Amino acid sequence: MTTLEDYLEMNADRIDRMLHRYFGNVHGDLFRASAHLLLAGGKRLRPAVTLLAADAIQRGSSDDLILAALSLELTHNFTLIHDDIMDGDTARRGVPTVHTLWDEPTAILAGDVLYAKAFEFICLAEGADAAKIRAVKMLARTCAEICEGQSMDMEFERREDVSELEYLEMVSKKTGALYGAAAAIGGLLAGANPVQTDALYQFGINSGIAFQIQDDLIDLLANTEESGKDRASDIREGKQTLIAIRAREKGIDLAPYRRPLSAAEIEGLVTILQDAGVIEEVRAVALERAGVAKEALSVIPESVEKQLLGEIADFFVNRGN
Amino acid sequence: MTTLEDYLEMNADRIDRMLHRYFGNVHGDLFRASAHLLLAGGKRLRPAVTLLAADAIQRGSSDDLILAALSLELTHNFTLIHDDIMDGDTARRGVPTVHTLWDEPTAILAGDVLYAKAFEFICLAEGADAAKIRAVKMLARTCAEICEGQSMDMEFERREDVSELEYLEMVSKKTGALYGAAAAIGGLLAGANPVQTDALYQFGINSGIAFQIQDDLIDLLANTEESGKDRASDIREGKQTLIAIRAREKGIDLAPYRRPLSAAEIEGLVTILQDAGVIEEVRAVALERAGVAKEALSVIPESVEKQLLGEIADFFVNRGN
């Protein structure tokens, strides 16, 4: 019996190999800029979800759908390249961001190239034409939602009164929708019926929301060595995460923490938030979403792959980086 | 017998009506930013090419393909929004550019939203699924080519030694490819066979190259009142157009004109270029491309719509704005 860890490692190797095949030897500044982040590694979770969903519907179908799985990874990377410009981020996955290494115009175009390739690759996968058309439509709608989510996220940075409902809408668009599409597209191309496709979408979107909430917790709780990220950056930047929203509801003022923080100050804040029950509550919301995700899978027949999909939802809320 | 002028006017009205239906009443900053340039008018030439190509293959088919025609207009507008950011342009179609009215992050996202809608709309058109998949692939490849063309265009601004071959490659990607896709997608969705589809693509790409060369001529020759654009901006910015390349070949140094120019200075330069035969030669290249475009149509059966397509190629090189 494959463990999820083994599966994800095998999958990441396979996806990396394919990405190197298609993007490892490109010519010219623009295409090298497009390939830069793609080739810097990553956990390749969205392709894993696509391929597991396909095999959960029809075992063996994933072999024909690698290009569709790549399409989800390309979409993810296009959004990262554009987001990094907007957010002014200088590093990701341990390498300088595209607009830092090249320039903003090149980064805009590099993202646009991956965007096009995502749609091309989904058409190049095997599968019935009607299913592919549905997959293209779903990917297109998802891309528009991701843009909306990123727009909300930026708008929230200028506000102090973001509600939990607004936060969940933002996260479900910015992060959840692409996991929803990853699962549903894998299913669709493998021949899932509409009920199964919808269930896979619900699985993905709820997993993605859980993933993002866990990301917020990791930002606050994990040491920089563990997470590879700047600890408590959300708090320092005044981001309206679920942690910040629940803290505000409990009368904890995070405004004084909107500045460079020492490790001791961060620990102090974590203790305050823990004592008020904020961390536990936020964690409960993430776990609940992972539960909803797994429950959605009940209409999918039992299989190893369905089992692994469920474990992915658990992994999303238990990972430490 | 419909004249081309009547047809284009009728078509622009129809496309404008559809755009208003889909984008006239959107909510939120992001979607308003996406709609801004779309609703500012335009000649709607790419949708016209799509619909005429469809009717040239199968009369009446264009009625089912309006959404595919919109897809081409959305693609064009997405590239304009992103190009305006990269080029730092502040006005287009008589209105402020998206990044000027909102900000750069919103403009990046607004373009990305139209990009997604372009792929969604092409799937929503009527037509055989297999043809739609081919259309999506063609649109995706075209988008990547447009990015490459824009990247070359920006790179050329930092060079003085661009060859005619390089210029033609850039123009065929930046402007030609989308006209090629507009014609071929219209044909594909109307049931064109591969020979016809390829001919329509060749018609479009050569028309588009002719269009761009004429654009360069208009920039230099037309009064600001006629063209609505800043006269001789290409010369002032040191753009490597076919005019600049041919002038260089004849030993005419345009470097001294890379600065604010009076109307008299522009007239003086035009006389120099005319006396050297540059204007006539560049015009001949545009006319030759329009001729190649029309010749490509020889495999398409005679019809009013084929006739109008040919007239579009002529119009591209005879228009004054």
TrEMBL record, chains A, B:
InterPro entries: Isoprenoid_synthase_dom_sf (IPR008949), Polyprenyl_synt (IPR000092), Polyprenyl_synt_CS (IPR033749). Keywords: Magnesium, Metal-binding, Transferase. CDD domains: Trans_IPPS_HT. One of its GO terms (biological process) is isoprenoid biosynthetic process. One of its GO terms (molecular function) is metal ion binding. It comes from the Archaea. Its cofactor is Mg(2+). The keyword Mitochondrion does not apply. Belongs to the FPP/GGPP synthase family. This is Polyprenyl synthetase family protein. It comes from Methanoculleus receptaculi.
